């Protein structure tokens, strides 16, 4: 079965997808992140690839929200894609001649400085993806409603008829986006590698003082490092929030599973979105008192006490 992704071909999401499935015959392009997750939930796709975190803009809220609600899904892999933006048009033109430019909102957020400096008067036309903006130019020409698009230079391989007006226009040249592959729960957990990540959704169960501290304590007392924490409104009412959290480690690590037990005890609707290998190389450093051996040794000792020994 196929893998759903934010299409069409030529998006940054497709670059991420190609890292795990190079054959386009298995790609199912859809028009949004929620549509990609819906394709998995209703069985049209075996999995989906969606952006989750950007090194410049932080968490991708459309993804965090769509994973926090609806039936549970599991992240089984992650991929990193370096992000480079090009401004393309149908013909060579001066930047001053560009009246309107189409792109995806994430892309727009990452070129704002360059646009302000080089084409401050330009109108922004939101597109469902960077590639959709560029292909709209090719399909509709002058009647597209915009003169240029901001997209991945990768699109030029398939469409050399596009003219590059400016390349590498991102405000941060080192920008990287992290993508995840998401599937239905029920598959086997990805193996523990020693360099893993676990993603959780933690609804803030109480608005009393110290509620967040109590959540964080579950991690800190077990030596679990958080690599991302974001609060998002649930949408239910003003002030109703959930935390979206990434932590270093696998649910098969004793320190992580103990932290998740503690969390679930104080927050019974905690959602486990998966444990999966980190894309970056390296090993998660764990202090002696937080290793699997230390947890087991302590648990065995208590077990003996409970057995009256
Ligand atoms: O529109 C795309 O090409 C996407 O894949 C979404 C996106 C846009 C900008 C940066 C990262 C992902």
Model description:
With 309 residues, this protein is of the alpha/beta class. It has 3 domains: 1-83 and 175-187, Periplasmic binding protein-like II (D-Maltodextrin-Binding Protein, domain 2), CATH 3.40.190; 86-166, D-Maltodextrin-Binding Protein, domain 2 (3-Layer(aba) Sandwich), CATH 3.40.190.10; 188-308, 2-Layer Sandwich (Alpha-Beta Plaits). It is built from 10 helices and 15 strands. Strands 1, 2, 3, 4, 5 and 11 form a 6-stranded mixed sheet that branches. The protein has a 5-stranded mixed sheet with strand order 8-7-9-6-10. A hairpin with a 3-residue loop joins strand 3 and strand 4. The longest helix has 15 residues, at 292-306. The mean pLDDT is 94. The structure holds 3-phenylpyruvic acid (PPY). Residues 6, 11-13, 51, 83, 104, 106-107, 129-131, 177 line the site of 3-phenylpyruvic acid.
Key phrases:
309 residues, alpha/beta, D-Maltodextrin-Binding Protein, domain 2, Alpha-Beta Plaits, six-stranded mixed β-sheet, five-stranded mixed β-sheet, 15 strands, 28% strand, elongated, binds 3-phenylpyruvic acid, Preph_deHydtase, Prephenate dehydratase, lyase, amino-acid biosynthesis
Which structural category fits the helices and strands?
A: alpha/beta
Count structural domains: 3
CATH architecture of the largest domain: 2-Layer Sandwich
**Strand count, sense and closure of the main sheet?**
6 strands, mixed
DSSP summary, beta strand count? 15
Mean pLDDT: 94
Low-pLDDT residue intervals, each spanning 5 or more residues: none
Name the helicity range. 25-40%
Bound molecules: 3-phenylpyruvic acid
How far do the termini sit from each other? Answer: 55 Å
Shape field: elongated
Q: Tell me the fraction of residues in β-strands, as a range.
A: 25-35%
Order of helices and strands: EHEHEEHEEEHHEHEHEEEHEEHEH
